[in-house]
Structure formats: structure tokens, C-alpha cells
Design brief:
By secondary structure, this protein is an alpha+beta fold. β4 and β5 form a beta hairpin. The protein contains five helices and 14 strands. The radius of gyration is 19 Å and the shape is globular. Helices cover about 20% and strands about 30% of the residues. The protein has one domain: Aminohydrolase, N-terminal nucleophile (Ntn) domain (Glutamine Phosphoribosylpyrophosphate, subunit 1, domain 1), CATH 3.60.20.
């Protein structure tokens, strides 16, 4: 699957952006990357998102244990690859009928975050158990929601093209074709939103970018890892009367 999103919709992390001289091209201009995807993937479909970008996916060469799904509900477009293990629990939680599948659950989880908050996004994504990667685009709010499971079970990559647009795909070569060296694996156990950027839903720590170096010693994109030396926000207040030495807590 492939998603290319205009920089006005999804502003990629600064660390992910490299100069155009590093092999990046314009992924949206003249339908370049959509055409390349269609030519290299049989039985492919391209969904035009107007000026916001496009989605593309192929029904061929699927892993039967990690199927690809696509759905549109109320102008929310979602590409999903993988399998949710606690699907019955989530159907009940989000009030979905028995015929609902994984992509329906992701769309409804996003709708809950958007309309019925306040729910922490980390809690919503953490509640999805299984092997998965997904990209959601909300045409109404012009925002996106992207995530990968904690083990990175589904190969998932992202990068920035020469014009600063975000490219996300399960095909590493497609991302390299559009982004050159401004590409890297999407960090496992993390999610990305238009409003909040890249965050880990498993750890409260900040994420730090670590350069990826190829065999010739050149930097080729960044990976993002949890920074063990930092925490988001303030630590929780210790319980009154505790015998623990809380001086080390701050």
C-alpha cells in the first residue's frame, strides 16, 4: 500500500527531510509515484485525494495472514494491512456490528478521537492488539493518522519527497523511488498525526532521530528511537507516606 500526502496535510518531521540532491523527486507531480506503483504492482488501485495527495494499493501478492484492506466512511479514507487479534472486543467497544473488519475499527477509533474526546490517542492505539500498519486520511478536517504495531510486524516505511510531501508505504523501494535518501522504516510502536507529529504510544519518553549510515558511510535517512534520557511532561506525584526514596524520582 502507498499514501502520498501533501505537506499541508502531513508535515513530516524535520529530521526526516533531506535535500533534493539526495535523490528525492516530486511524488505528486504528473502522477509520478502513482504511475510507478501501478506499473510495478498488478491489480492496483489509485484513489485520488485531489490536492491532498493519493492512496494506492494492490490486491495481488498478499500475505494471507496480513491482508490489505481499504475503506471510505464519511470522507475518512483508510488503508490497513495486517490482523487485529482483539477484534471482537473492539467491535463491542466502538459499537460496531458483527460484519465490521479491521479497517472499520480503525476508522471508528479515529472518529472517537476526533468527535467524542477527550481520549488520549496513545490509549486508543495501544488498545489495538495484533500485527498491523495503517494510514488514515480525513478529508473533512484535512488531517492524517498513521500507526504501526509495537513489533513492526508489517514492513512499513516513510520519507519526504523533494517538495516536502510525506510518502508512506509497505514497499521500501517505492519510498526510495520518491524520497531518495530521505526515507527510513516507520518506527514501530509509534503513531503520527497532523496535529501532534510522531509519538510513541508505548513509552512516555520523547523520540530522537538517529542517522542511518549506508555501506559507503553516507547518511541515508533517519530512524526514530525512544530517548531513554527524557520523559514527556512531569513525573507522577509519589504517594504520601511512601517509604521509598523519592529524591531519585525527580
Amino acid at each position: 500500500m502507498l499514501a502520498v500526502l501533501n505537506k499541508s496535510v502531513a508535515k513530516s518531521p524535520v529530521e526526516l527531510q533531506q535535500s533534493p540532491q539526495n535523490g528525492a523527486v516530486s511524488a505528486l507531480k504528473d502522477g509520478f509515484l502513482a504511475t510507478h506503483f501501478s506499473s510495478s504492482h498488478s491489480a492496483s488501485f489509485v484513489i485520488n485525494l485531489a490536492s491532498s495527495g493519493f492512496f494506492a494499493y494492490s490486491s495481488s501478492r498478499q500475505n494471507p495472514l496480513l491482508p490489505r484492506l481499504f475503506a471510505v466512511v464519511d470522507d475518512m479514507f483508510c488503508l490497513f494491512e495486517g490482523h487485529i487479534e482483539n477484534i471482537a472486543v473492539l467491535k463491542q467497544q466502538y459499537g460496531l456490528n458483527k460484519t465490521a473488519n479491521e479497517v472499520s475499527i480503525v476508522i471508528e477509533a479515529y472518529r472517537t478521537l476526533r468527535d467524542r474526546g477527550p481520549y488520549p490517542a496513545e490509549q486508543v492505539v495501544r488498545g489495538i492488539a495484533g500485527r498491523f500498519a495503517f494510514v488514515l486520511f480525513d478529508a473533512t478536517s484535512q488531517s492524517t493518522f498513521i500507526a504501526s504495531d509495537v513489533d513492526g510486524s508489517v514492513p512499513f516505511f516513510w520519507g519526504t519527497d523533494a517538495e516536502g510531501h510525506l510518502v508512506v508505504s509497505t514497499d521500501a523501494e517505492i519510498v526510495k523511488q520518491g524520497c531518495g535518501k530521505s526515507s527510513s522504516p516507520f518506527p514501530k510502536g509509534c503513531f503520527f498525526t497532523s496535529s501532534g507529529g510522531l509519538r510513541s504510544y508505548e513509552h512516555p519518553n520523547e523520540l530522537k532521530a538517529v542517522p542511518r549510515v549506508d555501506s559507503s558511510g553516507e547518511v541515508c535517512g533517519m530512524t526514530f528511537k525512544v530517548d531513554e534520557g527524557s520523559r514527556k511532561g512531569k513525573p507522577a506525584m509519589p504517594r504520601v507516606g511512601s517509604d521509598a526514596n523519592w529524591s531519585l524520582h525527580y
